[in-house]
Design a protein that fits this description.
This protein is 17% helix and 39% strand. With 140 residues, it is an alpha+beta fold.
Length: 140
């Protein structure tokens, strides 16, 4: 498996509804994980931490609800996600280093509760990026 480049949209509490709409419009399989699935028992527990739509035509769309404490900014609510398997970790780390250089790291590239390494940054041109390195068994 190779690395993938995907749009990643942030929503203000209606990510599930939006992604179900995109599934009805584009077809495919939708997976949804909530903050509660990762152990959050607070008011955001039922909100979408991560969702992914994969269509038979090869479209990949990812989305989440903006976490509590983070500002939702319409018009600036999309990132580009690069994800891949642990076997491609060296390339993914190289992409991370290059994209975050001269920019702002918003989430350090480190192990996350779901097992993958993930980091987020805004590059020197103001573009938001996510880099996710899957675990050996995650299928990323």
């Amino acid at each position: 498996m190779t690395s993938n480049l995907n749009p990643y949209i942030s929503f203000d509490g209606n990510a599930r509804e939006a992604m179900e709409f995109y599934r009805s419009a584009l077809g495919g399989d939708l997976t949804v994980s909530t903050f509660g699935d990762m152990g959050d028992t607070g008011p955001a527990a039922d909100k979408v931490m991560h969702s992914q739509l994969e269509t038979p035509t090869g479209f990949h769309l990812m989305a989440a609800d903006t976490p509590p404490g983070m500002e939702y900014r319409p018009g600036q609510n999309i990132s580009i996600s690069i994800s891949g398997p642990a076997a491609d970790a060296a390339n993914l780390r190289r992409y991370w280093e290059a994209l975050s250089a001269g920019g702002t790291i918003t989430v350090p590239l480190e192990k996350q509760p779901w097992g993958d390494e993930m980091g987020a940054c805004v590059d020197r041109y103001g573009i938001a990026w996510l880099v996710d390195i899957g675990t050996a068994d995650s299928g990323q």
